[in-house]
Amino acid sequence: MSILAAMAQTEYHVPKVLAEIHGDVSSASALCPFQTQKSTPTRIRMFCPGSVLPVMLFFCTTSLLASMAVLYLVLNSPPPHCTEACETEESQASVVSLAPDLLLPLLAVITRHVPSVARYLVACMAWLWPLGILFLLPIAFVALLYFTAFLVQLYCLRDWLIGGLRGTAASSSGSSSSTEEPYLNTDHLLRRLVAVMWEAHGRAFHGYEVVGMEKLPAPGEGAFLVYYHGTIPLDAYYFIARHIIKRNRLPIPVVDRFLFRLPGLQRILRLTCALEGSVEECVALLNPTLAESSKSLRSNSNSNNPKILDARNHDAIEIGETSTRAEQEKEQQEGDEEMRTVSSQAGEVLLLSPGGVREALFSDEYYSVLWGKRRGFARIAIKAKRPIYPVFTENIREGIRLVQYGKCWLRRLYEFTRLPFGLFYGYFPVKLRTHIGDPIYPRIGETDEQLADRTREAIEDMILRYQWRPGNVVIALLQRFPCFDAWVQSKNAQNYHSRRRKDSQIIMDFSG
To answer: Is Magnesium one of the keywords UniProt gives this record (predicted)?
Structure first.
C-alpha cells in the first residue's frame, strides 16, 4: 500500500525524475506507466505499403481478365448474315482502315495468345482470391447486422402477415387497451430472440467469454460501464446478449449519432433502447430518483428566485410555469413506451465508449486509448453518484482490422465529415474475452478531469495486463486452443508484474 501511495503521490513527477536519471524526457515517458499515452514506442505497421501491391495486382488481374474475355468474344464471334449487315461491315472496314498500322499486328498477337493468357490469369486469381476474401468478410458482419434488422422488421409485421394470410382485416378501433400489454411482452420476447442469436454466434465464432460479471451490482441498481472501442464493437453486441440472458436486464448502449442516419437500423436501435446520450438523459437512467429530486429542487429554486419575480410579472410567471409543466407532462405521457419501460426507479445499466469512432479507426496495434478531452462520462458518474466499471476485451482489434496506410488523410476526412471512412479486412475467428474491472467510485471534491484520468489509467492497466502487444492475428487465433490460451495468459501476467516491479523499484529509489 505504501508503494501505491507513493505512486499516487508522485504520479505527475515521475517523468521529471526519470528524465533526471536518464537525461532524456522520451526515455522517461517510455518507462513511466502513467504516461502511456505520451510514450512513443517503435510502431510496427499492421499493413505496410508493400502489402498494397498484391491487392492492386488482384484488382488489375480481374479487370484485365474481364477485358480479355470481352475482346476474345468480340473478335471470335461468328460473322453475321449478309442480309442487312453490309452497310455495317463497310462502316467497320472504314473504321479499321483509319486505325494505325501497328494496331492490327497487336490485335493479332493478342487474339492468338488469349487462351493461354486467360489460363494464366485464372491461375493468378486462384492464388490471390484469399486476399480478396479478407476484404469481403467484413461485409458478412454488416449482412448479419442487417439480417437482425430484417428479423426485427419481420417480427413486428407478424400480425399483418398472419391477418393477410387468413384473409381477416385487423380492426383498429377499441384495440389500444387490449394490445398495450402484449406489445410489451413481444418486445421482451424479440430481445430474447436477438440475444440468443448473437450469443450463439459469439460462442461459436469467437469462443466469447465474460470475466468479472459478478462485480456488477445486483439487478435493481444502476451500473455505468465504460469500455475500449475496437475496430468494430463486436464485444458490445456479445456483452449485451450475455447480460440479457444471464441477468435478464437490457444494457442501454450510448452510440454515435451517425448510426441513426444509417437506413434500416432505426427499428433495431429503438428495440435496444440505444441513445445518443446527453448528460441529463444518462443521469436520469442511472439514478432516476436523484434526477427527479434535482428537477424538483431546480423548479423550486426558479419559482422562489427574487430576481425572476422582480423582472417579470408574478401572474405571467405562474401562467408560464403551469403551461410548461402541462406541456412537459403531456410529452412524458405521449413519449415512447419502450423508453418508459426501460427507465425504472432502480436505475439501469449503461454502456458507453468515450473513444467512439475516432478510437475505432485511429488506434494502433498497441491498443492506444484515444479519448482526447472527452470527459462527459465522468460528469455523468459524478452527477449520478454511480461508480464506473472499466471494461476491456482481448483481441478486439484482431477480429476485423483496418488498413493503416494513409491514416493521416483518413483522419482529416473523418474530422471534416465525422463519418467512418476506411478499408476493413479480416473478420477472423479470434478469441474474445471481456474483462470487467473493479468499480471506480467518484471521490468527494473530485473533478471530471481527474475521474476521467483515473478511468483511462484503469483501462490502460487492463490492456497491459490482458492483451498481447503488439496485436497479432496468429496469436489471437491460436488462443482458441485452451493450452495456448493458458500460456498466453501466463506470459501476459508475467510481463505485467515484471514491468510493475521495475516501475515501483524506480519510484522507491527516487523516494529513498
So the answer is: no
The residue with cell 460473322 is 79
**Does the annotation count 497 as an active-site position?**
no
User: What does the mean pLDDT of the chain come to?
Assistant: 72
Where is 502: in which H helix or E strand? helix 482-511
Q: Is the pLDDT of residue 193 over 90?
A: no
Rounded distance between C-alpha atoms, residue 35 and residue 15, angstroms: 8
Other beta carbons less than 10 A from residue 471's beta carbon: 22
pTM of the model: 0.63
Residue 6 has pLDDT above 50, yes or no: no
Instruction: Report d(CA 282, CA 252) in Å as an integer.
Output: 10
Burial 54-90 (b: 16+ CB within 10 A, else e): ebeebeebbeebeebeeebeeeeeeeeeeeeeeeeee
Q: Please list the helix, strand and coil fractions of the chain in percent, rounded to the nearest 5, in that order.
A: 65, 5, 30
Give 441's DSSP letter: P
Cell numbers placing 322: 403551469
Phi-psi category of 40—alpha, beta or left, where left has phi over 0 and alpha has psi -120 to 50? Answer: beta
Confidence of residue 282 (pLDDT cuts 50, 70, 90): very high
Residue 389 C-alpha cell reads as 466499471
Return d(Cα 20, Cα 32) in angstroms, integer.
Answer: 13
Residue 445 φ then ψ, to 5°: 75, 10
* Active-site residue, selected from the candidate residues 206, 229, 243, 435: 229
CA angle 143, 149, 154 (to 5 degrees): 120
